[in-house]
Structures are given as C-alpha cells and as structure tokens.
C-alpha cells in the first residue's frame, strides 16, 4: 500500500553530554525515496531486556509513540532477562527485514552477537540506555550513569558525612551497574580515605531483583548488628528491597536510602520518608532522541557526536543526557511538574 510521508521530528538543538556537549540532528525528514521497495515506511526494531520494571514499561510506550507518531513502524520484543531469547528475538527481527535495530541489552557482553548479526545483514545498531561491550556499536544513547552514581553519593554525604555505608549494586552483567558504582565511589573515596566513612557491605544484585536486594540488606543488617548509617542502592527496585529489610527491623525512615529511576513506588517512599532520594532520568527525552537518531541513521546519514565511550573493542559514538537528583524538597518541581507521575499518583489522592 502506498504511504505518503512527510515527517518532521523537532528536537532541542543540543544535549548535555558527559563533560561535553553534542549536536543532535534538528529534524529527521522522510522523503519518497526513503520508503522500502514495497512503498512501505522504514521499520525500527526494539530489542528490550525486560518489562518487569515500571521504568521499562514507560520506555516501551514512549519509544513506540515516538516512532509511530511519525509514520514509522516499530517491532518490539522483550526477553525478560533471558540472553538466549534476546538474541533469538533480535535475529527474528533482522530476518523480518527491519531497517535499524535499537537494543537494551540484558548482558552487555552476550549481546555483542546481536550486533555482529545485524551488521552482517547491513543493519545499524543503537544501544539504548545500556552499552553493549566488545562490539562495533554504531551509537550509544543513554544518561550519564556515572553522574547518576555521583548524585546518589553526594546526597548521602550531605546527610551522613561520617558513618557506616552499605552499597547494594545492580546486575554485574549490566555495564550501567558498573558505571553507577564508579560514580558512587568517585565521590565516596575521599571520605573513605579520610576514615570518615566505612563501606561495611558491598554486593551486586543479580538481574536487579528486589528480592535479592532484600536478602543482601538483611544480611548486611545481621552481620553488622544493625549498625548502618546510610544505604546506596543502584536503582529504585533494589531500594525497595532495602526498605523492606529495614522495615523488618523497625529501621525504615531512620537510615537514609538512595535509589534511582524515580519509580512511582520510590517517589511515594520519599513522601513517606522511608527513601531519601532518587535520581530522575527524563526518559521521554531519551526515547525521543533515540527515535530521531534511529530515523537519521536509517536514512544512511552520518552522525558524529563529540563524546565516545570505550566498550572494550572500540570508541563508541555516544550521546549522554543529564540526570537530576530528587528529594522531598524538589519532588513537585521535578517529577510532578514534568508529568512523569501525577500529584494524585504520588500522594495517593486517587
């Protein structure tokens, strides 16, 4: 069926990048010769790790809307933490003839196989939010995850300049988890060196699972006789497990807890006082920018950002967006004003 397309995707001219700035295509315009041989619009594949967390449900919805509102087609698959399934799903989309692949990897190294297969079929690949390691990725678009960790640690140090700290990390297979931890310790290390704080428990959390974070936090409390002054959790899902363990000991609200992602449950915990802060990553900005760049690259246009990140094989062209620290003091001005969550949702006035 003949499809007439005239698309404009208006974006901000520049994005804040990690210690740098990068120009983003101002617009992506589809022309008649950008259609497939069957006069169909180009198709974008979106291979997601999971839909088990609130955050990724939002990403799927926003990315799909960003693509479809401009007349493109999008195929979405979610593997829910299964590496073999994610590879199989990506292969299926490649065989179906997608024109560009966007991937949220579950395992940063295992998904290198997907990149190789896509490139073998002449398909470019964008890593969405999480970096794929040891592969020649065409583009990586994410938030500055190292900065996320720094924001968490900065807020905790303001509240607890001296004391015993627990770190509940993310999934060791996720490159973002390593970046977050690096950011946290960028800030904490001087205080550690001075002897002001001690890291008395430090553990990764397989698949970012709240129940695993709960087990880790329960263990940390047990082996330290509850003598804990601050907890930094790698995301809000793991922070939820932390708060549950603290609740079991009657300590919820007495020990500062940091998370990230601004999940609704976490924002409600901030209002209740059982979680101290989260880090908001405006994922609508992320989804819109990835959509614009997917269109741009699918048209075989070049894009050369000024930032690159080494993934173990090459310097990957990268666009990094700025995260925002959120506490009870700025929750309304950031989360609610941005309509990420409504006031009714946050304060339970439904």
Mean pLDDT: 89
Bin the helical content: 25-40%
Across the major sheet, the strand order is 4-3-5-6-7-14-13
- How many discrete structural domains? 2
- Spans of 5+ residues with little confidence (pLDDT < 50)? 1-37
H and E order: EEEHEHEHEEHEHEHEHEHEHEEEHH
The best one-word shape is: globular
Give the CATH superfamily of the largest domain: Response regulator
CATH topology of the largest domain: Rossmann fold
How many beta-strand segments?
15
Q: What is the architecture of the largest domain at the second tier of CATH? A: 3-Layer(aba) Sandwich
CATH class of the largest domain: Alpha Beta
Radius of gyration: 21 Å
What is the distance, rounded to the nearest whole angstrom, between the alpha carbons of the first and last residues?
Answer: 45 Å
**Number of continuous helical runs:** 11
Q: Provide the structure class.
A: alpha/beta
Largest sheet: 7 strands, mixed
Subcellular location: Cell envelope
Main location: other
Signal peptide: 1-19
Domain Periplasmic binding protein: 44-301
What layout of secondary structure does this protein have?
Blueprint: E1 14-17, E2 20-23, E3 43-48, H1 54-68, E4 73-78, H2 83-95, E5 100-103, H3 112-120, E6 124-128, E7 139-143, H4 145-159, E8 163-168, H5 175-194, E9 197-203, H6 210-223, E10 230-233, H7 236-248, E11 257-258, H8 264-272, E12 278-280, H9 283-298, E13 307-310, E14 315-321, E15 324-326, H10 331-336, H11 343-347
Parallel strand pairs: 3-4, 3-5, 5-6, 6-7, 7-14, 8-9, 8-10, 10-11
Antiparallel strand pairs: 1-2, 12-15, 13-14
């Amino acid at each position: 069926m003949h499809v007439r397309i005239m698309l404009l995707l208006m974006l901000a001219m520049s994005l804040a990048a990690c210690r740098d700035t990068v120009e983003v295509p101002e617009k992506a315009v589809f022309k008649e010769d950008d259609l497939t041989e069957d006069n169909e619009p180009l198709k974008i594949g979106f291979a997601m790790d999971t839909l088990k967390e609130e955050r990724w449900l939002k990403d799927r919805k926003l990315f799909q809307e960003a693509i479809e509102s401009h007349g493109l087609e999008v195929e979405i698959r979610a593997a829910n933490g299964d590496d073999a399934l994610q590879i199989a799903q990506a292969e299926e989309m490649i065989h179906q003839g997608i024109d560009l692949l966007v991937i949220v990897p579950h395992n940063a190294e295992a998904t290198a196989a997907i990149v190789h297969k896509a490139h073998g079929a002449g398909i470019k690949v964008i890593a969405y939010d999480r970096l794929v390691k040891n592969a020649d990725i065409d583009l990586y678009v994410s938030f500055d995850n190292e900065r996320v960790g720094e924001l968490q640690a900065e807020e905790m140090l303001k509240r607890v300049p001296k004391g015993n700290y627990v770190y509940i990390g993310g999934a060791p297979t996720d490159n973002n988890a390593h970046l977050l931890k690096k950011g946290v310790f960028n800030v904490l290390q001087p205080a550690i060196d001075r002897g002001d704080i001690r890291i008395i428990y430090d553990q990764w959390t397989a698949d970012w699972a709240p129940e695993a974070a709960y087990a880790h936090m329960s263990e940390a409390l047990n082996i330290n006789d509850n003598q804990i002054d601050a907890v930094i959790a790698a995301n809000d899902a793991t922070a939820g497990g932390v708060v549950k363990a603290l609740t079991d000991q009657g300590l919820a609200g007495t020990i500062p807890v940091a998370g990230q992602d601004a999940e609704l449950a976490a924002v409600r915990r901030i209002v209740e006082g059982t979680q101290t802060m989260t880090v908001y990553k405006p994922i609508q900005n992320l989804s819109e920018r990835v959509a614009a760049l997917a269109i741009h690259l699918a048209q075989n246009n070049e894009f050369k950002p000024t930032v690159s990140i080494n993934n173990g094989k090459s310097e990957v062209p990268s666009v990094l967006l700025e995260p925002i620290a959120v506490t009870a003091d700025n929750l309304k001005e950031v989360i609610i004003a941005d309509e990420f969550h409504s006031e009714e949702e946050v304060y339970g006035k439904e």
